[in-house]
Write a structure and sequence with these properties.
Layout (H helix, E strand, L loop, with lengths): L2 H11 L1 H6 L1 H4 L2 H11 L5 E5 L5 H8 L3 E6 L2 H14 L4 E5 L12 E7 L8 H11 E13 L4 H14 L9 H10 L6 E9 L1 H7 L4 H13 L2 H7 L7 E11 L7
Parallel strand pairs: 1-2, 1-4, 2-3, 4-5
Antiparallel strand pairs: 5-7, 6-7
Helix pairs in contact: 4-5, 8-11
């Protein structure tokens, strides 16, 4: 099955679970998006790969005019219903893929993507599209799980991710993000990161991971060395800790660190 079709099918089936997921619905980064919008009146923002729409809701609550874009119709239906429930009349939806956005050049002041990029089939193409639809001087914010710089720990993370979700492509390292943003014509990103605990039962149930695959994830962590288990802070029930980063870059010629 073609990867984009696989992702759309999988996330269409579980769309409501992502609206109520604590990992997606909570976080200081959402408040940060709201405050950013409040400081920029009449901000035209794109929530790219919006999923259940939490980044878009945060921006709209700060006063931004938001377009929530996702390839999955079921996700967009969830976003529309929740935006109506919250009274967010400045948010609208549009179906589309990150790699081929259905918008004219220089449409948005801000493009934000949260917990989506690790599913994109072609990140360089998506970043080029983000740069295309941004106005001159506009900003791109990427919020996503990031892989450790250690090759060993990186491999472990990608393995458990794809066992849990067959549509997973890659959690990129911060160094990879910097290189990809540079190639796409963005300036050097400001970046900061924080830890996030993945509660094993809800993490696997949200994606309807089979018990066979859940057992395989437990085995990957169980067979990992003590150093890796300590890095991921693996718990007795299989829960573990990952790193999430906020990378913010201006569209335009790359400026060296």
């Amino acid at each position: 099955m073609e990867r984009n079709t696989l992702a759309t099918r999988q996330f269409g089936a579980v769309a409501p679970a992502y609206l109520t997921s604590a990992v997606h619905a909570r976080g200081a980064d959402l408040q940060r998006l709201t405050e950013l919008a409040r400081r920029s009146p009449r901000l035209a923002a794109l929530d790219l790969g919006c999923g259940a729409g939490h980044a878009g809701f945060a921006l709209a609550e700060g006063g931004a005019e938001v377009t929530a874009c996702d390839p999955t119709r079921e996700m967009l239906a969830v976003v529309e219903a929740e935006a109506q429930r919250r009274g967010l009349d400045t948010l609208r939806t549009r179906q589309g893929r990150a790699e081929r956005l259905p918008f004219q050049d220089a449409t948005f002041d801000l493009v934000a993507t949260r917990f989506s990029a690790h599913h994109w089939s072609d990140v360089p193409a998506a970043l080029a599209e983000a740069g295309r639809v941004l106005k001159p001087g506009g900003s791109l914010i990427v919020i996503d799980v990031v892989a450790p710089e250690s090759p060993q720990f990186d491999t472990i993370l990608q393995t458990v991710e794809i066992l849990r979700d067959a549509s997973h492509v890659r959690d990129y390292r911060v160094s990879e993000w910097r290189a990809m943003l540079r190639s796409a014509g963005f300036q050097a990103p400001a970046a900061d990161a924080w830890s996030l605990v993945m509660e094993f039962k809800t993490w696997t149930e949200r994606m309807r991971t089979s018990e066979l695959r859940a057992d395989a994830i437990r085995d990957v962590f169980g067979q990992a060395g003590a150093e890796a288990r300590e890095y991921f802070q693996v718990q007795a029930d299989g829960s573990f800790t990952i790193e999430v980063a906020w990378l913010q870059a201006l569209a335009g010629a790359f400026a060296a660190d």
